[in-house]
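User: Please predict the structure of the protein below. I'd like the answer in structure-token form so I can feed it into my own downstream comparison script.

Assistant: Understood. Taking the following sequence of 516 residues as input:
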Amino acid sequence: MEAEAKLNVIGRSSAVALWGLAGTIVSIEACVSAGLPGIDIVGLPDTSVSESRKRLRAALAYLGVPVATQHLTINLTPGTVPKIGTGFDLGIAVAVLRAQGVIDFAGTESVVHCGELGLDGRIRPVNGVLPSLHVGLQAGFERFVVPAGNHHEASLLAGAHVKAITSLAELVNIYGGDLAVPPLPAVVAAPSPAANRPEPHDLAEVQGQDEARFGLEVAAAGGHNLLMRGTPGAGKTLLAQCLPSILPPLDDAQAVEVAAVRSLRGELESSAGLDHRPPFESPHHRTTASAMVGGRTPGSIGILSRAHRGVLFLDEAPEFSRDVLEALRQPLESRQVQIHRAWGSMVLPAAFQLVMAANPCPCGAGMQGAEKDCRCTPMDKRRYRSRLSGPLLDRVDLQLELFPVSPADIRLGGTQEPSAAVAERVLVARQRQASRYSDCEWSLNSGAPGPWLREHFGLDPKALTDLDQALETGRITMRGYDRILRVATTLTDLDGAQAPTADRIRTALALRNQDS
């Protein structure tokens, strides 16, 4: 009778099925029943989850709890949610050992388990631990078990009671069992690619280009998208690489969002704590639209999401494929990527600041004062510039023209203002915006709706004369109208003034509509 009662025990544990940064709590059930020896896993498992039965059988045999003669049924509920990845191994093992009576603790279902099972019973680190813990906390769970290799990552999230383990036997003993822990070292994660992130350049390195430096400061202060056109060597790339050095550091909530994205990609360097530096992504112009957007498989994260809360820099922007450029339009408005594939739908964060650099023409010499060296026909220039479509440019707040640096700029320019000095002004402007938008869904001028700005500042119709005229003549669209108001508000914050004036609106209009 006692043996029969053991067979009727249903072992339970919990895990998280991730779908991008969102997820669903999965209840894992296991039972030992009569039948041919084997392990059945049901509940929409993918290949990696189905293969866990082989890892489970080998690990339990190594630890002295063989299941080769038993028939195990493992159910992952809800059955309508696909289960992807090896992170379910640990939860499955706990449920099986509870069903066998090896674990006496009845509260395993109230603990979220995450980890991959090795053939020797050790627990290997997995991707996505940070978002898994976040989903568990939102669902009301407080206790979590993670691999020792993910301990630093799990400690980044406050409010979670995390137990890091090195082997399955160690966890069994914590749950009231009695297994010998193999004398093996803990499995640690491989070195993170994020450790090789280049440091941003300093604005003190930029020679001349006073107008471009000012435009970069405005872009940083308000979070505005930016396009720089100029001849090769004018400093477009250097200026873009200086932008992270004048941006304020991320707050803790934003840093956790960035860390969660890196966790999904396995690029999180968590040993040094939260990284408060804004991300900077600069993909090659041959990058495909699939790599930019992500979602080729449910676990793949694109470059747009990697740039979340940071800067996305497209050097030689007209050389990117049409699909890539047009894929930017929806994320620039909604601040997220909506992916719809044959395997399902997923939403990923993509609140980035877009910076693009472009030559004036295919040969790069078609700027005012350098036309004598240009070999491009008017049709070539028109075709080249049309690669950046009107709808995309309409979402770019600032368009700057960079001219070649002259010897006088180098000899007479003197000491250039460093990034630290500019960053102080940017931080003050950001603080003014944080105070103004404290009760709003947005926090930067780049996200403020035009009607809200007009109502808040009570703008004089005389101050809007030039802007109204540009709208009537078709120079700008209504979207452009609102975006110019946002830039004028940023100029107001940099000046420490109370409201946009006609001069600031004219300056914002000029910064948006520069033509070579």
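That's the full token string. The chain has three domains: 2-174, 196-437, 448-516.
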